[in-house]
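Hey, can you fold this one?
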Amino acid sequence: MFRVNTLSARRSRRHPDPLTTPRRAHRLVAFACLSLVLILLASCGSSGSTPDDRSFANDPAKQHNQPTATLTVTSTDVPTPTPTPAPSPAALLRPRGAAPRFYVAVGGQLLTITDQGTARRIDLPQQSTLLGFDWSPNGEQVAVAIGRPGKKKDETAVSLVVLDEEGKTVRTVPDVLILPAARATPTPGTNAGARVMVDWGLVGNQLAVATDAGALVVIPASGKPKPVATDLKGQTIRVMRISPQGDAAALLLVDGLQRGTVASVSLVDAKPQAPKPLAGYGVDTRYSATAFAWVPDGRRMLYTQAAAGDDPSTGGELYLLDTKTKERRLIDTGGRAGPSAGITAFIPSPDAKTVAYVIGVNQGATWIANSLWVRSLRDSTQLGVPIGSAESVDGLWWTAGGLVWATRITEPGAAGSYQLVFFQQPPEGNVHELLRVTVKRGVAGTSPASPVAFPVGTPAGGPAATPASTKRG
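Sure. Predicted structure:
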């Protein structure tokens, strides 16, 4: 006989099994699923980054206490760009294409000086006078204009002699032109300039000779001299330079009131021509050009200008002129040395990248050297070159060994005698004395101004080398 537990049966009817009730079973399944989702979210949060305190989903995430990852990316297609180094001031003193020697005239004699501090005298033909000179771009030859008495009284017949660095004659061009007698005594306080100018072009060994009276002759490497007819309208030529392309020449012309104009003439045009103004009084009557030099790239020109009516012999603001577009850029005013300062000398480098220039201060009728600078023509990079206590800079030359300049020192108690001391600033290292030329006047058995050049450290009784003249810049 079977007994049935009626109490259990009653409980089953009053409290049915949740697993056997469909509605409650569904709730239980939903609750389990929800719990599983919450557990998964919690596990994801714990395995990820440290949770932040953002209130909203679009709030920026806080970066503190977060681990960082290091990524290394290697590209085989695009190389990593190399930063362009800033221009080095020392690079301004290393011009490409500079010759290892230059030539100077001292006391009526010609010297060649190397960037190693050696000097040699260049002997000229007997009974001739040194009138002007210029040397080849590589410094291996020098063209010298010499004068002898002409057929008429007070006239000088000008010939051209080309010599090598040892003084051997390479070529002679006789009677290139006639230099007339000087028109008048120069106005006191002004620099009349050379009466004969020689320039050695950069193309084809072409030479040119000019006189202050307006004569201009082109001398090709081979062939006869070719006169260039110009109408200067009463102006005189103070400086003449062949353009780097060799098809034109630039002239510094000065009128009767000492107002200067830089103008150009064609060297290939056979017809008479009037020079075309490029800068100075002929372009703007408020100003007077005082000096100029071609930049070797052939397109640009450096020149100085001062107020019209000022002494045109030296001094002014330095400009860079594009001869094609006529655009110009101010390089330096010299104002850093005071209100009466100006640029008194300058010379572009052979590679057309830089210019060296002297700032002088006008003290009455004398210009006193204040400082020497080398500046890039591409940007504002510049370098000051120490000149010590030198009161004058009597020449600037670019050489393969760096920048060379000279200063004159008067010997106490020796009237008319002086020393011309050459200094060199190499691309690396300090300024040092390169050479010293002593000019003795009135010494028995010598010319009225007889220079003797000794390399630094050579005893005074050592071998003498003779003096020289000046060139571009």
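The mean pLDDT is 78. Let me know if you want another pass with a different chain boundary.
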